[in-house]
Amino acid sequence: MAGGRRRKLALSKIYGIACGKASFKEDHSQIGRPGFSRVVYSNEPDCFEAGIRNYCDNYVRTTKYTAATFLPKSLFEQFRRVANFYFLVTGILSFTRLAPYSAVSAIVPLIIVIGATMIKEGVEDWRRKQQDIEVNNRKVKVHQRDGNFHYSEWKNLRVGDIVKVEKDEFFPTDLVLLASSYEDAVCYVETMNLDGETNLKLKQALEVTSSLNDDYNFRDFKAIIKCEDPNANLYSFVGTMEFEEQQYPLSPQQLLLRDSKLRNTDYIYGVVVFTGHDTKVIQNSTDPPSKRSKIEKKMDRIIYLMFFIVFIMGFVGSIFFGVATENDLENGRIKKRWYLRPDSSEILFDPKRAPAAAIYHFLTALLLFSYFIPISLYVSIEIVKILQSIFINQDIHMYYEEADKPAHARTSNLNEELGQVDTILSDKTGTLTCNSMEFIKCSVAGTAYGRGVTEVERAMDRKKGSPLVHEKLKVQNHIEDSTDINPTIKGFNFKDERIMNGNWVDEPCADVIQKFFRLLAICHTAIPEVDEDTGKVSYEAESPDEAAFVIAAREVGFEFHKRTQTSISLYELDPVSGRRVDRLYKLLNVLEFNSSRKRMSVIVRNEEGKLLLLCKGADSVMFERLAKGGRDFEEDTREHMNEYADAGLRTLVLAYRELSEDENKAFNEKFTEAKNSVSADRETLIDEVADQIERDLILLGATAVEDKLQNGVPDCIDKLAQAGIKLWVLTGDKMETAINIGYACSLLRQGMKQVIINLDTPEIQSLEKTGEKDAITKASRKSVLEQILQGTAQVTALSAMSEAFALIIDGKSLAYALEDDMKKMFLELAIGCASVICCRSSPKQKALVTRLVKSGTGKTTLAIGDGANDVGMLQEADIGIGISGVEGMQAVMSSDVAIAQFRYLERLLLVHGHWCYRRISSMICYFFYKNITFGFTLFLYEAYASFSAQPAYNDWYLSLYNVFFSSLPVIAMGVFDQDVSARFCLKFPLLYQEGVQNVLFGWRRIVSWMFNGFYSAIIIFFFCSKALEHQAFNHAGKTAGLEIFGGTMYTCVVWAVNLQMSLSISYFTLIQHIAIWGSIAFWYLFQVVYGFLPPSFSTNAYRVFIEALAPAPSYWLTTLFVVIATLIPYFLYSAIQMRFFPMYHGMIQWIRHEGHSNDAAYVEMVRQRSIRPTTVGSTARRVARSTHQR
Amino acid sequence: MTNTDRERHRERETAFYLFTQQRLPACKPVLTPAWVITIFLFTGFIFIPVGLVTLRASRSVVEIVERYDTECVPEPFRIDKVSYVQDDSIPKNCSLSLKVRKYMKAPIYIYYQLDNYYQNHRRYVKSRSDRQLLHGWKYHATSSCQPVEFNNNQPIVPCGLIAWSLFNDTFTFIRERAELKVNRKNIAWKSDRDHKFGKTVYPFNFQNGTLIGGGKLNPRIPLSDQEDLIVWMRTSALPSFRKLYGRIEEDLDADDVVVVHLMNNYNTYGFGGKKKLVLSTSSWLGGKNDFLGLACVFVGSSSVILAIVFMLLHLKSRRPYGDPSYLPWNRKSFSG
């Protein structure tokens, strides 16, 4: 490594790592029993004992099919769809004498359709296979023999192998850690892929193996590990290692899981214990639930309706047919239609067995009317959806250039569902925020410093839209940029020339400022890493805010550069001499942070020998701890903190006190005693002791850290809110943080009534001390119920006054609120509130809340998250969106669509979602329309053919209708149609409600389209039959037979459905033109070509077009007339609707068409048409503020 | 890469780019009142003249239709027409006299019209063998012809119900004692004669069974010249149809009386069908049918009316386009 090896630190001594040896005692007794039977012969995977155990290899397969199973399995999948099954049955039946058409003509479309779908499946699976191959062929160093490590592919790893994993590599299997590059055999692991947590986890090997930290040590290494069988529990591991004839217990502390990553450690050695599908990660991965969109589910219902119609028609036809057939014969003598020879008939037409003939006829009718069900519907929809996903993937506006990440629609099933989202459930960290903290402002000695602008302020300014502000900001930024030497330091966005570049020494309260930043540099648990080449220091901290503090101190001139077990060293600026001096602070005690204390302190001795207690904490606990004389700046500080909080910043109060030697000694004794106590209330004891000393503090000031929102989040949330989409935030964070973020992204604002549900009541806390579980549960449940009821009462009482409410609930209360008897009430309350924030919620709770919203409201839910802790939620929601911004891939892998930034959600939903919804729903409606138009002419013809199931059209005309003459325009519509352009979609977010309210795919619309189909068929059939009745068809006196009648009517159908398409789309690209006119032209071309095939193939269509139809003016005139007459009613309907009752997209089309789009007032008027006043988002905030001011 | 190549490449890229960004140049028609009115007026102005022309063509055709199925059964047999027509011993000849009301220009087409005759019944339509018609009795796979496939273990050519039920009324026309010449050639489609009915295929074993259907065929004339059969075998679309019988190639003057001698052989009595004899001239459009012309005029004029109504409505109600009161989500009371 170029930078040289970093110093080895005995890190285990800074953190009190408890290996948990004691607590696993009882579990270890089970080893060897059922469930704990695994035996791993370390370093001898080839030995006989290992051979007989035959553990699985490390090849991981995620594909759905293998070469052998592909055909049967995918066919089975295909025919599980009821429509496809129906077509399979009709296909088989078409080989019998029942079929009204030739078998080949019926089978070919089915083969085309099924084949296309199977090819698609195959290609998708093949891609997955490529991914598998990539993963399985990654290389890792494996011990061969004699201490030599060589690279080998992951898939070749076997249980018992010793592997060496190097820095920033993924673990190839589940390993037991043996040793690492650190002396005490610790290593850092990033488990992002498993649980979404970005902080590093510390693992430590057993002491006995910790010395094996070089390759040659493994020459003769032997150990036997006995452990539990493969299971899905990530956080447990029970095993023993037999090493040098001694037994040592193994715990999760030694287990390195596949798919986690080695960080900050040069290398580790480990034994493979679980491979391939035995690893905990893969055991954990459940098959992703296959999701289907609501539209598709409804489509199934339409198909059932169509079946019903087909059955009715078949049934009616069969009755008529049966009666007519029976009447042909009387007492064995021909009675009526002698030309049908009823006396000697096969069963299908036998008058003697008329009921049987009728039943057979029913089957035939089902075959004939199968044209009612669009055979190409599924495959067309799939093609369209794939193309739509390509559009989503390719959209330059959803491409995140910095990380080179485009949007990625991982399943194409749910495109249209994106247009119907009612509620968004969002994770916070990494989704709304970037998970990076920036030190942005501070208040020291009652003076506010920091000129940085937060994302929230920026959003508000933009909304105000006054150009002056913009100008001012720009100028300001400009000046700052030019003066700023280090414009981009991660975690630091503090701009103030009074402090920076050592100018703070000239400030009036320079001593306070000095103490302030010194405190920031000392009071933390971060570890410095010095890059020995450049001398730059970077920090590893437990939390990003802590890192931000240390960095801020460094930038101001208090550079923390060294930590030992007992000391902290800073380079600091000496205000007197003006030089940088190295100062050492003896670290005496660390009083750690926890959620109940809400503060942390350190006790240090400085070089002058003074004892200092430095403390930082939340304002709620800090102000009460100030000494009487330490409250000089309290007023000002409080005021500043309120400002910060409203700007969405996280604040902490800093204070200190000097300790006397005696005080410290007394404290130290008590504290050590408390720490060493083993009783159950050890924590409380420690807290109490700490509480005693953290008093009489002297206020220094307050910090403000921006939990940086991702770019454009407030704007995006505002747009979504305007579109009428509700946003719930589900976060694992503390309530304060969550509320802060709520403010930051305008989900909360001043003047909003907050309904807070938690269990921090004194009674429950006192109950918790007693530890009676039942009592606690009971009291908690009661308390939660009460709070919910109270909240509901409040909401119902005040909602009339258009008061906005926010519901904030914490994880513990949520556990009770989600219980069966309470969840309805909870949901009711939550729906009544404008914004809902659930904090401290576990992954499971996130999923449960999602399920509650989904099933409780019946509306479409969308979950968005970035970490593995969101996986449950993503899978549970109707649509799961993964943020692919950070490294973790778990969320992305289980999501339906992955985007790089939260703000792309706006475009994804409002533009792509809306378009896809519109396209798919129009497409399905149109599909049924065109098939009804076609199929119903067949039925009407039946009525004139004695219901004998004689098709009006040639066999191949029949079967190619769906495939060639009407499918392409629908696909083109499904891919390209836009009611309004992307710009207008975003300008009028309310347009999105068309999808939420399902205006375009309600039963009314579906039935209207079906009706359109029926009357089109009626017009076409009767007009054609009237026009071609029995007079001569052409100049040469020839009359129209079946083939001419069929050909003409078919031409009319093709024209009508294609022109209907051109009437119903609102976006004509060249492709649409090609598809529509091309389909029609292709029909003529087909007639010519097909007509030239030998008569044995083309049967009654032989040369019909060339010889009979094309030269006859009546053919063309009839076509023209019938087609126009068919379309006029629809045209009239849509003209009237567009002019007098436009839908929302119609209004926008008007605006665009009439050039109103620049008329701000007019646009605003249309935009403001809302279902209800928008209550969240920055627009609402601005409105609320302005009314407040008035 | 030359410059033009590069340019072309870039062009292609932009087209592709526009495609993926869904920003392909497109026209976005909006149904503005102006468009609607224009389209309706346009339809009207196209359809009215077209309708009138069509109507004129149809009206120019002179047509004589004479039903003869009842009249041609002698009075005593009218109770049981079926046995009359099935009884070979009774002569079936019959005379009609047709009066020509208007001058009819040659060629005058002679049709027979059958009603309630399901030539489009599936059993009937399928009951033929195209291969046999083309290749003769060498072609054996004629199961579709059942039950008229074999007789006395000999194949029937042409097989099937359609051929078997061949129409066999015959007509002769006499004007002022002179027989009008009826041309019975070229009444079938050429493609049928040339490609569907074999030139070397002769009727064989036809109508030799116990049950005789319709007409017989001269076994010495190849099928391709049996135009009656060819016409008959193009099955009709609807149960009421006309088929071409022949052409009179002389003009008929108004008030001419044409006497038709016909053989009333064909049995339509069993199923209650009608038989008609039709003499018709033809126009460029074909025969006489006012429907198309009238319907065109009707559609055209209603388009014009719709255009006017729409225009009035448009002028009368100047509703702002932004009125949202009827948007679906504002109509429903919104509760949640």
UniProtKB/TrEMBL annotation, chain A:
- Where does this protein come from, organism-wise? Durio zibethinus
**Name of the protein described by the UniProt record:** Phospholipid-transporting ATPase
Q: Which Pfam families match?
A: Cation_ATPase, PhoLip_ATPase_C, PhoLip_ATPase_N
KW Cell inner membrane (keyword) present: no
Q: Its gene?
A: LOC111318426
InterPro entries in alphabetical order: ATPase_P-typ_cyto_dom_N, ATPase_P-typ_P_site, ATPase_P-typ_TM_dom_sf, ATPase_P-typ_transduc_dom_A_sf, HAD-like_sf, HAD_sf, P-type_ATPase_IV, P-type_ATPase_N
Q: Where is the P-type ATPase C-terminal domain?
A: 892-1142
**Keyword field:** ATP-binding, Magnesium, Membrane, Metal-binding, Nucleotide-binding, Translocase, Transmembrane, Transmembrane helix
Cofactor entry: Mg(2+)
Question: Where do the catalytic residues lie?
Answer: D427
The catalytic activity of this protein is classed by the Enzyme Commission as 7.6.2.1
SUPFAM superfamilies from the UniProt entry: Calcium ATPase, transduction domain A, Calcium ATPase, transmembrane domain M, HAD-like, Metal cation-transporting ATPase, ATP-binding domain N
- Similarity remark: Belongs to the cation transport ATPase (P-type) (TC 3.A.3) family. Type IV subfamily.
**Key word Cell cycle present in the record?**
no
GO terms for MF: ATP binding; ATP hydrolysis activity; ATPase-coupled intramembrane lipid transporter activity; magnesium ion binding
The record lists Mg(2+) as bound by D427, T429, D866, D870
Tell me where on the tree of life, at the top rank, the source sits: Eukaryota
| Positions of ATP binding | D427, K428, T429, E546, F593, K616, R650, T731, G732, D733, R840, K846, N869, D870
**Chief site of localization:** membrane
From TrEMBL, chain B:
Q: What are the record keywords, sorted?
A: Membrane, Transmembrane, Transmembrane helix
What is the residue range of the signal peptide feature?
A: none
Report if keyword Transmembrane is assigned. yes
Superkingdom to which the source organism belongs: Eukaryota
**Compartments where found:** Membrane
Which family is annotated? Belongs to the CDC50/LEM3 family.
Name of the molecule in the record: ALA-interacting subunit
Q: What is the lineage of its organism?
A: Eukaryota, Viridiplantae, Streptophyta, Embryophyta, Tracheophyta
